[in-house]
Amino acid sequence: MNKNESIGGRAYSNGVQLMNSSKAVKAYYNKAGDLKVDIKRSRKIKKANFLKKIPVIRGILSIFIALWVFLKEVLKNPIKYWFIFLIILFDLIFWFGGNGEVTTFRALFLLSYFFLPLFLIFYFRNNISEVLKFHGAEHMAVNYYENDCQGQIKNYSRIHKSCGSNFIFYFILFQIIGSLLALDLNIIIRQLLYIGLAYEAMKYTPDSLLFIVTIIQRFVAKKPDKKQIIAAEKALNVLMDEKVDNYI
Questions:
Q1: Whole-number average pLDDT of the chain
Q2: Which of 15, 112, 122, 158 is most buried, judging by how many CB atoms fall within 10 Å of its CB?
């Protein structure tokens, strides 16, 4: 594996996935507590390589690719992601259910709608805690890789510049700026522009100016335990092993 190649990652409630341009490696714990590895070859899109060199456009492309990968995962195992469909159902009812007339049913629904996030957070509180720990381990593994694999993964920071929480922060920031400037653009074009600008801001903001997003990231990338670090280390070792490419 070329050390100059960038890698990305994703955290789950039971493991970590790291990926580069050729493959994605997920190291996870099964129900018995055994560490398993799942390896998939990444599909290469020639036109995407060209688009990834264009500022703003590359950010939009990256987000759509991430959403597409997530959508395929959801559709592959819809029962596991039942809460996603519940959120979509509530959103559809909220936006298209009724003409705005206040009724007892609508009042109860609105109350349920706004309490839904709190219910899901409470219901998945243990899973969320595990995801955040694996998220921290994922960042530590990427930082270790980007520092030429010097030392040990456990000694690296769980804060990373390219974290999705940083992207969300900048996206919201550009939303606010756009509202203040009252940009006269089509809403779809405007949102795509904000996505692209948020990606560029995340990519080029100096580390010295990342103190705000760093504070946020300390909540979404928790300090991992030993088992999370072991999973992240396993995923990275397999990702870097070029011999694996011959078997996928």
A1: 85
A2: 15
221 three-class SS: coil
Give burial (CB, 10 Å; 0-12/13-18/19+) of 178: middle
Residue 25: DSSP 8-state: E
136/156 Cα distance (integer angstroms):
10
CA dist., res. 187 & res. 244, Å (int): 45
SS3 32: coil
Q: Which two tokens stand for residue 196?
A: 């692209």
Instruction: Tell me the two tokens of residue 168.
Output: 């969300």
The 10s digit of each residue's pLDDT in 96-137 is: 665 555 567 667 777 777 787 788 888 888 889 999 999 999
By CB atoms closer than 10 A (0-12, 13-18, 19+), residue 200 is middle
Give the dihedral of Cα atoms 187, 188, 190, 192; nearest 10 deg.
160
Q: Is the dihedral of CA 9, 229, 222, 4 positive or negative?
A: negative
- Which amino acid would we find at residue 168? I
Contact 97, 119 (CB under 8 A): no
What H or E segment, with its residue span, contains residue 19?
A: strand 15-19
DSSP letter for 33, please.
S
Look up residue 103 and give its two tokens.
Answer: 């009724």
pTM of the predicted model as reported, rounded to 2 decimal places: 0.80
Q: Which DSSP helix (H) or strand (E) runs through 12?
A: none
* Cα 242 to Cα 102: distance, rounded to the nearest angstrom: 62
Burial code (b: 16+ CB inside 10 Å, e: under 16) for 84-108 equals: eeeeeebeeeeeeeeeeeeeeebee
The pair of structure tokens assigned to 225 is: 């335990």
